[in-house]
Design a protein that fits this description.
single chain, six-stranded mixed beta sheet, Deoxyribonuclease I, Chain A, seven-stranded mixed beta sheet, 22% helix, 19 strands, 7 helices
Length: 365
């Protein structure tokens, strides 16, 4: 009996459509976020600080290295969440990309081309020249509108000048017919130390909170997914107190958010490592409506950090750290200094309302 129950649960989680007694089937969908670690092309852009990522720069960034990096990123994105799903992610937020060209090249890689990913992207004023973007499969997610929201930060220590950082990307669309908002972030780094730079992330958190509050004021039941590299952990002030993102479902209210990955962080897991400590800067946070939702509407099923062995540093002093693509100016052939994170949602739909998805088997051929 125990073995049969275990088998049933595994099938329930892994299948995209399984028959039930009330003539309905279950659909599942993966939403992910991935820091692509300085995905620059190899051309010298005079308006971007990309000198290192050129053929004559420190990293000797050639077309061959660029193409390999693209293929590596495509492989990872295709497989995020594959433990519980037979389909590539419907939606993927990314950061540390240089421009629209690298996104076009990324979605055309062998791994991703069969899924025909589209994307939403705006140039940010970030001094490093990196942006955020949202990839999505158009047959699953249909964009209605998108906009960038600037984050105004001023140096309060030395010059009072503006510190240029990444804009936040807000996308509104229909996920298999259901309205949903996706907010993609890449908050300011900890450059200069965690405490000295905290006010920068706090400002970014204020902007994120304002966006969330505005959407909920318009529609208290709005389904909102807030994702990104926050450069803060789930228990830091910006996440825990400003966004009010909690690890426990019972703490959810209209104003609070749910942080499903916070439990993993409390258990010692992370998406990046430094000085033999794990950090979980990469997170996906949701509104209450994606937790407490009817069975026939999208609701949270599971969450995780995608960290298979091939994404881990194979040897040396950084063994088991994320296998980054460039280390000390040397191309390693690796992937990123961050692991991707994801959530998976499920809903129950009548059979005649379910649209078939692209078969993963065909996408792999």
């Amino acid at each position: 009996m125990k073995t049969m129950l275990t088998t049933f649960l595994l099938v329930y989680l892994k299948t995209i459509a399984c028959a039930s007694q009330n003539n309905a089937i279950h659909q599942s969908v993966t939403i992910a976020f991935y820091n692509l670690e300085n995905l620059f092309d190899y051309d010298d852009d005079p308006l971007t600080f990309d000198d290192d990522r050129t053929p004559y720069g420190r990293d000797q960034w050639t077309e061959a290295k660029y193409r390999r990096k693209l293929n590596n990123m495509g492989r990872v994105i295709k497989n995020i969440g594959s433990k519980n799903s037979d389909h590539a992610p419907a939606i993927v937020g990314v950061c540390e990309i240089e421009n629209k060209k690298v996104l076009q090249d990324l979605v055309r890689t062998q791994a991703l081309a069969p899924y025909r990913y589209a994307f939403e992207h705006f140039d940010s004023p970030d001094r490093r020249g990196i942006d955020v973007a949202l990839l999505y499969q158009p047959h699953q997610f249909k964009t209605i509108w998108s906009k960038k929201i600037p984050v105004f930060i001023f140096d309060r220590i030395h010059t009072s000048r503006r510190i240029f950082t990444r804009d936040q990307l807000l996308v509104y669309g229909l996920l298999s017919g259901e309205p949903i908002y996706i907010l993609v972030n890449h908050w300011p780094s900890r450059s200069g130390g965690q405490e000295a730079s905290e006010y920068r992330r706090q400002k970014a958190a204020d902007v994120t909170k304002h966006i969330k509050d505005s959407l909920l004021n318009m529609d208290p039941k709005a389904k909102i997914v807030i994702m990104g590299d926050f450069n803060d952990n789930p228990d830091d002030n910006s996440i825990k107190n400003t966004l009010k993102a909690h690890a426990k479902v019972k703490q959810l209210t209209h104003d609070n958010l749910y942080n499903p990955l916070a439990k993993l962080y409390a258990m010692g897991y992370g998406s990046l490592a430094f000085n033999d400590r794990w950090f979980l800067f990469d997170q996906i946070i949701t509104t209450k409506s994606l937790v407490h939702s009817p069975k026939t509407s999208w609701h949270l099923m599971t969450s995780g950090i995608y960290n298979p062995p091939y994404l881990q540093q194979p040897d040396g002093p950084y063994k088991f750290y994320p296998y980054r693509s460039v280390q000390g100016g040397r191309f390693t052939g690796g992937y990123s200094d961050h692991y991707p994170v994801y959530i998976q949602m499920i809903r129950e739909r009548p059979e005649d309302l379910v649209q078939p998805l692209l078969p993963r088997q065909a996408a792999q051929n």
